[in-house]
Structures are given as structure tokens and as C-alpha cells.
Amino acid sequence: MFNKGFPAIQIFIYFPSTVFLFSMSAQKFFAYIEACAASFLSLPRKSTIRLVSHYDCDGISACAIMVKALSRLNYRFTLSSVPQLDEKTFQKLKAENPDVVVFMDLGSGQLEKVAGHLPMPVFILDHHQFSPAKIPDNIMHVNPNAYSLKGSEEICGAGVTYLFCKALSKENTDMAHIAVIGAIGDVQENHGFTGLNQQILSDAVNSGRIEVEPGLRLFGINTRSLVKTLQFSSEVPGISSESEAVQFLQEMDINPRKGSSWRKYSDLSQHEIKKLISSIVMNRLDTKQPEAVVGPRYILVQENRDSPLRDAKEFATLLNACGRMGKVSLGIGVCINDSRLKSKAIQLLNSYKRQILRNLEWFRQAKKDEVIKGSGYIIINARENVIPTMIGTLASMVAKSPDVKQGTYVLGISHVLDGTSKFSIRVSGDTYGSSLNEVASQIAQTVDGYGGGHSYAAGGLIQTEKEAEFLKNARKILRQASMEELVQ
Ligand SMILES: [Mn+2]
What is the mean pLDDT of residues 300-326? Predict the structure, then answer.
């Protein structure tokens, strides 16, 4: 298949004609969604509907799908996206007293609170784990985990919302691509999708929004030049400057230039692409999965060729940027295809990237009491130096940097300015088998705070006045957790 001497690479190819055979549990889940959709459609058209979603890529995607569906039905609604469902949000909802509340990508973790605070019809469209609770009839709890489906892998909040909206009207299948983007944002794509996500992808392909093509999966490959992509990608070891990238291309007879400008990936011939892929895989032979840079790419075919929105991965990053920079409505506008908001969002993405660089710069120059490096952990005590919605991004970047040892916990904490502090925990290297949500909850509980999230990315909220005590306990718990990891 490839030139002699190059390693064989398996390329995943997607067949849109796949026939889906659903398990009994999936069918029961669909039946419940149908029933909930029917009860939603029986609501009077004059009802005031209040949408509340998580503020990350998945939550914004979910919200956008719902906005489109409700607009089609001529329902009136207001919306907000929040970092977490806290007491303040419940008080606000109680004061507003809408006719209906719809939670997306959150709510399952607080079933009892929802039941205690909200007497009106409530729809929870979520995929997070939950502890069983007795819930009253006014609450419709749509969650795949209740049907032994894997909410952490095979469907996200936007996916659950999509299935619900598809049950409201088949027309809404034209939003399937947004649910795929939500799943990518929630890291459910792993060289393809599993379970319900596969069906949603199939809807997105059939509606002509997404094309799946095998290729190189390097960030920014659609928008940046080949040289810049190679230079800045952490996936290609040994290339960190423009001249190294140029040399790398020239060594395999690929001209990096087209006239006076740099070539892009889309300018390459099939033959050149094969050569490039093989060389990059060769370069990665020391890594765990050298061929992991090759796989399905999800192309949003209706977007401009040089737009960051053309690649589902970059689209997901843009939605995360909107959430973290406090511009959720911009993200929703992009999802429902508002061209004016699209160009604004792309500008925002660029300033988000600059903000990330500034945060990294602060981290590198931070004082001793701001970055604490212990055995098995790094604590970033950012106080007011990093905005709280970006502390998780900073922790992720630090965890991914090559000079941090595998299995090191990275905890970042910063002030929210309302008397609380937000913290995030990540771990470097393979996150398989880690349970960061449990670690987050354990540390937070020592100071009566709240912690949770995913196994691979977690965080929480504590009172700022208890920060010192929290950090003391965090050091102890993280050291212990990293030791247990070594023993396993
Ligand atoms: Mn989610």
C-alpha cells in the first residue's frame, strides 16, 4: 500500500451504509425519549421555556440543537450556560419561575436538588453518572446511564439533546453534525465513534453536513501552512522550528512552498500525502502509538476551505473558547449558521489562543509559592493571575507538556472573585484507569467544597478563605494517589 520500507498503516474508512442493530437497552432508551418528546409537545405554545446548559463545547452544542428545534416549533425561550449547577442557579430559576426548565449536559448530578427546588415540568438531557434518587413525576430524566448505555463513551449531552430533538421532529436531523462536534469536545472520539454516537454520525453524513475521510490528524492542518502545522504540533517529535519543518519536508521531496507562499495540506497530491504520513509515523516510532496521527477526519463540507470551522476538532475548540471567554451566544450562533457571528467567533478564537499563551507565559515565570512541584504532582496556585474558566485549560497544557513525567497530577486553582475558588485536576500521559473525579471530590470534601467531573478531567469549587487548607490537603491526597498509581 505504501512505499517499501515504510510501516504499514491501517486507515479507518467509514461506511455510511452501516445498518444499526440496537440492543434492548438502547431501544428502551429511545422509547423513553419518544415519550418525553411527546409530553414536551403537549406543552402549550405560549409556555415560557428556560434552557440551562453546561458552558463547554458539549453544552453549547446541546443548547444550539435545542434552540433550533424550539425556533422551528415557535416556542419562546431564554437560555444561559453555566460552569456548574449551583445553589445560585437554582435560586435564580426559582425567582424566574418559568413554565418549563430544560437542563442540558448537566442536572443528573443534582437530581435531588432539582426535585427539591423546581415544581414545574423539568427535562434533564444529560449523560453524566448519577446516583439513583426518588424523583417526582414533573422531572423527565433522559440519561443513557439509566439504560446501561455508556454515557462517558457512546453519547454526550449534545447527543442526548439531539435524539430528543429528533423525536420532536425529524427535520432536526440537520443538526446531527453539531452533536458530533459535542462528542468530539467531550473526547468521545477515539479513532471513530462507538454506540449511539455512530448513529448520530451517520445522520450527520446522510444530511450532507459531514464527510469522514482518512488522513493526518494534526491540529490546525486545514488552516495553517504545512510548515507551521509541523512546527507547532506536539504530535511530531523533533520538529520545533520553521527550518526543521522545511528540512523535514525537503528530505522527502515535498516542496514546502507554492510560489512565494507556504503550501497547505490541501495543496498536496495523494502521493505526497502518503509520503508525509509515512515519514511522520516513522518519526513517532518511539511513542506508544506511532500511527495514532492517522485516522478519520470529520470535515464540515459546507464551511469554507480555509475556515477553522471546516474541521470538527477545531470547531469544538472554538465552542470551548466561546464558553470560556463568556461568549456562549456567539458559539450558539455559529452552530445555527449565522455568518456574522461566525466571523466574530473566529476572532474570539484567536484572542483565546493568545490568552492561552499569556497563561503559559505566567506559569513559566511564576514564583515558588505559585507553582508547587511535589512528588507526583504539580500545583498551580494562580489566585487572580488566570481567569477561573481557563484554569482547566492551563492545567491540561501543563499536563501535556513533554517535560512532565507520566502519571503526574496537575491541580490548578484560581479565584472566581465572589468568595469562591475554582480548581481543575488533570493527569499527564495515559488517562486510562484514572478517576480524577473521585480525587477532586475527595480533596474538595476536606474543606466542605464540591468536586466532580470526568475520570480524565475533573474539578470543583471551594471557599477562597479555605484555599490554604485545601492546598495542604491536596498535596497529601495527590501524593498518595500518585503512589497508588505506581503500585498498580
Ligand atoms: Mn458533556
Answer: 92
Ligand 1 centroid–CA 66 distance in Å is 15
Residue with cell 491526597: 477
Cα–Cα distances in angstroms (integers) from residue 169 to residues 209, 213, 299, 328, in the given order: 18, 29, 25, 25
Terminal Cα distance for the chain, rounded: 40
Level-2 CATH architecture, domain 24-208: Alpha-Beta Complex (3.90)
Cell readout for 264 is 497547505
> What phi and psi values does residue 402 have, to the nearest 5 degrees?
-65, -25
Give 401-433 pLDDT, tens digit per residue: 877 888 899 999 999 988 999 999 999 887 777
Q: Give the distance (Å) from ligand 1 centre to CA of residue 450.
A: 18
Sign of CA dihedral 294, 410, 431, 351: negative
Which residue, 386, 406, 405, 402, is CA-closest to 394?
386
CA 285 – ligand 1 centroid, Å: 33
Q: Burial level of 488, CB count in 10 A (0-12/13-18/19+)?
A: exposed
Handedness of CA 219, 332, 65, 103 (dihedral sign): positive
Residues with Cβ within 8 Å of residue 458, at least 6 apart in sequence: 424, 425, 436, 437, 439, 440, 441, 451, 452
Closest CA to 486 of 427, 425, 412: 427
Name the residue type at position 30. F
Task: Summarize pLDDT for 268-285 with one digit per residue, the tens.
Answer: 998 999 999 999 998 888
Q: Which amino acid is at 440?
A: A
24-208 and 366-487, same CATH topology: no
Q: Tens of pLDDT along 345-362? A: 999 998 998 898 899 999
Provide the 3-class DSSP secondary structure of residue 461.
Answer: strand
Cβ 348 vs Cβ 325: under 8 Å? yes
Residue 261 pairs with which residues in a beta bridge? 258
Between the CA of 317 and the centroid of ligand 1 the distance, in Å, is 14
CA 263/CA 222 separation, integer angstroms: 11
In the reported structure, the alpha carbon of residue 85 is separated from the centroid of ligand 1 by a whole-number distance in angstroms of 13
Domain boundaries, the chain: 24-208, 215-358, 366-487
CATH architecture of 366-487: Roll (3.10)
How far does the centroid of ligand 1 lie from the alpha carbon of residue 128, in Å? Answer: 7
10 Å CB burial of residue 479 (0-12, 13-18, 19+) is middle
Q: CA 230, CA 241: separation in Å to the nearest integer?
A: 9
Max avg pLDDT among 53-57, 285-289, 348-352: 53-57
Residue appearing with cell numbers 510560489: 259
Q: Note residues around ion ligand 1 (Cβ under 5 angstroms).
A: 58, 105, 156-157, 186
Cα(144) to ligand 1 centroid in Å equals 12
